């Protein structure tokens, strides 16, 4: 469709169906874009695809903001960069030199030190086709299994649990089960935040049938837990004791399907012997919950016509994550709560294509199509399909993520190629990861965004295309394969990930040049790569021999297995009671309870939990580009129970130092009774791009599950104490938020504490696309003049026209306010407030509110009253908590809130919080 742009020049408008790039729900999207007469392309809007079976048109706050995240090219990696020495800056080069250099460096390292001196670290946000080429490059060409992925950090215990219990990876469930479940058990899943579109579907099912019961197992009272019929607020890490206790009760009450156990499983006798010790009373004491609540949960589950479990990082990110997964699966096997509508153990995938990466074997511990590295027959099958000489593939499993970076630290691995992920922020014990990257002989970073904590370590920085610019496929949590389509061309010299890997592979292949060997990398587009992948799956549990791009184009997203000759894929697995094990029987395993890997002590008396914010994603390299996504949680913080804070003499907003055996960081304190006494919580998202530290993984634990190799990112023992600083600064500026952020970010590292965030502009005349950058900083003493000069220049807050200043050098006090005049009124356009104590919040809130300044400009310097922050609950409509509470006080329930204020009517991500606020006000 054609039209005219703002300049009057003709504009071509297009709509492209694709898939969201965030969580594993795999929502379909429609990307609206335009191309002007000069050939310039841009994404202008995104909406949910009503025809996609995963979301039927719904999107969460993050998905709805995708167009905003793509609107600016500021901070994109647009050309290859190389450096010849670690102490020199990188310089721009052309693709030919970049690819030749990378291929040469990797080849020479392999020639000197062997294949296992090279490693690859990939991402669950890559497309299946990208993953496939990397897997073939590592295992088929370089002959190393050292290729792992950040999915190791989130899903590997779920994978291991499924494989041990059922014989194969992959949930036996589908999204339609959300509509049919009569009991829903959330275990370590704050689905209201992590998978909001699925949570909307669960809310709808409960509204249709109020008899549906929700059980939430979580140490925190999350928004998901607040909506539960039963919240089991267990002590951190005690999930196995709880689940064993529930199964003990089911055994005692005869609520098992013994015929199914006898005919279709093995190992139950050994588990039953263990369960004798896990009485509900003993289990409840371990977990710190009432025994009657444990019994109630078991009764609801065991007597339900259809019980569905939804689980995520709370189970997986643990040194005993595999046992936690198995203990939950045991409940389903023992009661035959699987293989029928509404029943089954459903692992909710964290990333958009963690499943696809597993399918192609893009992990260090598996081969393509769920084959085993240690199985000679499986290796031979892949060698035949890849046309490799017999014995080419290594029989030795590669290094999983934590082991990979430890080997890099120790010098066993010399070079690492990192694609589409940010291990300098997301790995546990990131101080040691930074050391590993610094020590490495060669670091390749393939990335779309320059602003990640890993990019500074790159010897070669390769510009990658990103969402909206790529073609291929992804697989979501219900095993559904969807097409990802490009709406616009990649900017600058950015290229698809598969293309970059293939071009390096071709150069290495030419250098190795085995006479008569078949070329490995002939595919020159995503579709033939997908065809190679599906050929490898034929006859396997994930057989997609009947699925190709043509079918996906004609019939839309499809679930695997999808065998040749079939009209559709398989929605539910194991309905016939036949499993993917050699004897077709599922396996029970003995799962004794073991405590968290790091216990509290007199030195480190508190238990740290980590988790997600509602509107941010992982390391915020994409969501951190969108000011309105900061509105719900504008700044980082550490949440502590009010009683624990009072005992330590700490108040809300106090800067506190969080320390573990591995490192420390400073955060402002938040008081909340959502965490129990003795427990603190911090969000995982904040990185060195927004903090003076690398984020909460400065203190996290690198202990891993012995079978899945997944680290215990959820728990650590810490201490919390007041952080004293003699100088405090608050600075804010309205303008091009991404440019302002980039200018200020290098200053963070010089502060004892600093936090940098974006905020939407609420001004009545805010039609110019401007937003706010807000910096809070603290140090032992005022920083050097050069630091202050850089800050003032970056934020245009140096003395000048429309800058009002008050200074008291003796007290070390400096106040500046920048003004903007519009519509015959004054508006605050920026501020700088430096003092020996924190201050300026009242002025900042007046500025962010966006209204015209009332009274003389000089009155801004007296705006020193402490004003409580009015949190934004609904980011789509920018509705604040005070407005909602006022409406509830006037008698409004959730439907009335939606009608009166518009909150909850766009993406619905705020609905759980609206319900909680309505209940709290009713009970007050």
From TrEMBL:
What name does UniProt use for this protein?
Molybdopterin-dependent oxidoreductase
Q: Which cofactor does it need?
A: Mo-bis(molybdopterin guanine dinucleotide); [4Fe-4S] cluster
Query: What UniProt keywords apply to this chain's record, in alphabetical order?
Result: 4Fe-4S, Iron, Iron-sulfur, Metal-binding, Molybdenum, Nitrate assimilation, Oxidoreductase
Recorded source organism is: Luteimonas rhizosphaericola
Residues in 4Fe-4S Mo/W bis-MGD-type domain copies: 13-74
Protein family per UniProt:
Belongs to the prokaryotic molybdopterin-containing oxidoreductase family. NasA/NapA/NarB subfamily.
Query: What is the organism lineage in this UniProt record?
Result: Bacteria, Pseudomonadati, Pseudomonadota, Gammaproteobacteria, Lysobacterales
Q: Does the keyword Iron-sulfur apply?
A: yes
């Amino acid at each position: 469709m054609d039209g005219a742009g703002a300049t009057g020049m003709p504009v071509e408008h297009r709509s492209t169906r694709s898939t969201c790039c965030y969580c594993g729900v795999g929502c379909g999207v429609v990307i609206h874009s335009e191309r002007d007469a000069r050939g310039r392309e841009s994404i202008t809007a995104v909406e949910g695809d009503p025809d996609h079976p995963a979301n039927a048109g719904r999107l969460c706050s993050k998905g709805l903001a995708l167009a905003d995240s793509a609107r600016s090219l500021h901070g994109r990696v647009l050309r290859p960069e190389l450096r010849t020495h670690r102490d020199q800056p990188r310089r721009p080069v052309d693709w030919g030199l970049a690819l030749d250099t990378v291929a040469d460096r990797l080849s020479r390292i392999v020639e000197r030190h062997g294949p296992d001196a090279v490693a690859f670290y990939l991402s669950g946000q890559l497309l299946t086709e990208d993953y496939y080429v990397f897997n073939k490059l590592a295992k088929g060409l370089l002959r190393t299994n050292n290729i792992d992925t950040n999915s190791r950090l989130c899903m590997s215990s779920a994978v291991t649990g499924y494989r041990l219990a059922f014989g194969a990876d992959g949930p036996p469930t589908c999204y339609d089960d959300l509509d049919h479940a009569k009991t829903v058990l959330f275990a370590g899943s704050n689905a209201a935040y992590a998978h909001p579109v699925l949570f909307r579907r669960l809310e709808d099912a409960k509204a249709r049938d109020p008899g549906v019961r929700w059980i939430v197992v979580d140490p925190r009272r999350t928004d998901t837990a607040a909506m539960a019929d039963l919240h089991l607020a267990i002590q951190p890490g005690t999930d196995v004791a709880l689940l064993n206790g529930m199964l003990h009760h089911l055994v005692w009450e005869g609520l098992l399907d013994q015929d199914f156990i006898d005919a279709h499983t093995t190992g139950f006798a050994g588990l039953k012997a263990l369960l004798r010790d896990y009485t509900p009373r003993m289990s409840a004491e371990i977990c710190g919950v009432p025994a009657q609540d444990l019994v109630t949960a078991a009764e609801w589950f065991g007597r339900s016509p259809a019980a569905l479990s939804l689980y995520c990082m709370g189970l997986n990110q643990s040194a005993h994550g595999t046992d936690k997964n198995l203990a939950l699966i045991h409940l389903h096997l023992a009661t035959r709560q699987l293989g029928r509508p509404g029943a089954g153990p459903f692992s909710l995938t964290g990333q958009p294509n963690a499943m696809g990466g597993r399918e192609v074997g893009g992990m260090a511990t598996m081969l393509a199509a769920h084959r085993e590295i240690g199985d000679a027959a499986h290796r031979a099958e892949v060698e035949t399909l890849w046309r490799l000489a017999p014995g080419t593939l290594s029989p030795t499993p590669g290094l999983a993520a934590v082991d990979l970076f430890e080997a890099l630290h120790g010098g066993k691995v010399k070079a690492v190629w990192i694609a589409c992920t940010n291990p300098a922020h997301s790995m546990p014990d990131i101080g040691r990861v930074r050391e590993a990257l610094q020590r490495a002989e060669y670091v390749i970073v393939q990335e779309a965004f320059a602003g990640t904590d890993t990019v500074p370590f790159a010897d070669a920085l390769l510009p990658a295309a990103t969402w909206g610019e790529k073609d291929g496929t992804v697989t979501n949590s219900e095993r559904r394969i969807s097409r990802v389509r490009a709406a616009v061309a990649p900017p600058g010299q950015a290229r698809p990930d598969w293309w970059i890997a293939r071009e390096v592979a071709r150069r290495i292949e030419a250098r190795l040049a085995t006479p008569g060997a078949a070329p490995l990398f002939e595919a020159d587009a995503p579709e033939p790569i997908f065809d190679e992948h599906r050929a490898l799956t034929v006859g396997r549990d994930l057989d997609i021999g009947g699925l190709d791009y043509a079918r996906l184009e004609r019939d839309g997203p499809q679930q695997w297995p999808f065998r040749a000759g079939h009209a559709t894929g398989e929605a539910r697995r194991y309905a016939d009671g036949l499993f993917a094990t050699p004897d077709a029987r599922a396996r029970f395993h003995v799962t004794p309870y073991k405590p968290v890997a790091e216990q509290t002590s007199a030195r480190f008396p508190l238990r740290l939990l980590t988790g997600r914010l509602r509107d941010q994603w992982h390391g915020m390299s994409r969501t951190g580009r969108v000011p309105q996504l900061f509105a719900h949680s504008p700044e980082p913080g550490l949440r502590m129970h009010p009683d624990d804070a009072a005992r330590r003499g700490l108040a809300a907003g106090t800067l506190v130092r969080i320390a573990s055996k591995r490192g420390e960081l400073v955060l402002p304190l938040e008081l909340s009774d959502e965490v129990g006494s003795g427990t603190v919580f911090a969000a995982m998202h904040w990185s060195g791009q927004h903090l003076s530290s690398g984020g909460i993984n400065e203190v996290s634990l690198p202990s891993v599950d012995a079978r899945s190799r997944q680290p215990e990112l959820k728990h650590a023992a810490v201490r919390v104490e007041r952080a004293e600083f003699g100088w405090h600064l608050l600075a804010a500026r309205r303008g091009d938020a991404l440019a302002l952020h980039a200018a200020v970010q290098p200053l963070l590292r010089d502060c004892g504490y600093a936090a940098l965030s974006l905020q939407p502009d609420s001004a009545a005349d805010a039609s110019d696309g401007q937003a706010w950058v807000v910096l809070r900083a603290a140090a032992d003493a005022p920083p050097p003049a050069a630091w202050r000069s850089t800050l003032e220049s970056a934020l245009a807050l140096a003395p000048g026209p429309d800058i009002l200043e008050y200074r008291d050098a003796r007290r070390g006090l400096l106040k500046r306010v920048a003004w903007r005049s519009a519509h015959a009124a004054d508006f605050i356009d920026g501020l700088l407030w430096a003092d020996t104590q924190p201050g300026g919040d009242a002025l900042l809130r007046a500025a962010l509110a966006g209204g015209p300044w009332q009274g003389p400009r000089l009155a801004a310097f007296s705006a020193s009253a402490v004003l409580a922050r009015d949190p934004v609950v609904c980011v789509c409509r920018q509705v604040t908590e005070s407005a909602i509470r006022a409406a509830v006080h006037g008698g409004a329930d959730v439907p009335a809130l939606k009608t009166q204020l518009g909150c909850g009517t766009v993406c619905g991500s705020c609905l759980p919080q609206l319900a909680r606020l309505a209940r709290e006000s009713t009970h007050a």
